[in-house]
Amino acid sequence: MILYEYPFNERIRTYLRLEHLFGRLSQLLPRESALDHHFALITIFEIMDVSSRADLKSDVLKDLEKLKTHMSAFRGNPAISETSLDFILGQIETAFTQFSQQIGKPGHDLTDNEWLMSIRSRAVIPGGTCEFDLPAYHSWQQGPVASRKADLDQWSSTLGPLARALTLLMQVLRDSGKPQKVMSTAGQFQQTLPQGRSFQLLRLRIDDSLGLVPEISGNRLVVSVRLMRPGPDGKLHTAREEVPFELTLCA
Q1: Is the pTM of this model over 0.70?
Q2: Chain segment 153-170, per-residue pLDDT in tens
Q3: Are strands 201-206 and 244-250 parallel, antiparallel or unpaired?
Q4: Which member of 26, 28, 47, 202 has the lowest number of beta carbons within 10 Å of its beta carbon?
Q5: Residue 151: CA atoms inside 13 Å, Cβ hemisphere, count?
Q6: How far apart (Å, rounded) are the C-alpha atoms in residues 217 and 226?
């Protein structure tokens, strides 16, 4: 099964982009090659770019506060484990405290490092990090693996509070949805959304053996899915058959 996710608002769209970048960074950091470490550093710069939005920090903190209030309302509910509730509330409190105490935007401390910023300014130029442009960076790449790893761990640590907060928020958001089996008609599917509920994320799972690509669109009133099949001409063409897939709406 292939999972596709579609955000219903710009805030969740930004969260998904950051989550994607943090996932890439977590795979690159443990590796040892200089090329992997180069792309790890580029990923750190990308995270700084995406998280440079002025309202990102306030959005994350507001969402954590709302989540804490929502979870606290389950206190005393006999159907809810008090131990599990205390655990998730502790996670929320820790994430909120760590992120709120961070000064400035995520990665702000790195902007004071002139050497890193020189690499960042050259990285946007195709081939701009060649050894003749950045000899000091080339020297760092040829240095000991342990030294490069230590540097990368230090530089990425400033992004840790944001990563932990986003992981928690997205985990709870995804857990809020209930999967449902649906069927497309002539490659099309449309569902009216219930009034009074504000959905933030759509999750779609489809059998990868079908060779289909879903094109998803939606707003607060309706969600539509069009199933496409890659053709020999390199273009996507609408699939005309009835196809089952799994749909989850997360609020």
Answers
A1: yes
A2: 999 999 999 999 999 999
A3: antiparallel
A4: 26
A5: 19
A6: 9
- A 10 A CB-CB count for 92 gives 23
Res. 234: pLDDT tops 90: no
Mean pLDDT of the chain: 94
**Residue 17: which of 7, 8, 29 has the closest Cα?**
7
Residue 196 has pLDDT above 80, yes or no: no
Encoding tokens for residue 119? 């690499």
CA 120 – CA 19 distance, rounded (Å) = 21
89 CB-near residues (< 8 Å, 6+ apart): 68, 71, 72
Residue owning tokens 């006999």: 78
For the stretch 103-127, pLDDT in tens is 888 888 999 999 999 999 999 999 9
| Ordered alpha helix ranges (H), the chain | 10-28, 34-50, 56-72, 82-100, 114-123, 135-141, 145-157, 160-175
Q: Which of 140, 143, 138, 113 has its CA nearest to residue 128?
A: 138
Dihedral, CA atoms, 41, 45, 48, 53, nearest 10 degrees?
Answer: -160
> Which residues lie closer than 8 Å to 190 by C-beta, 6 or more apart?
222, 223, 224, 225
- The number of beta carbons lying within 10 Å of the beta carbon of residue 143 is 13
130-to-38, 127, 136, 141, 211 alpha-carbon distances in Å: 11, 6, 11, 11, 40
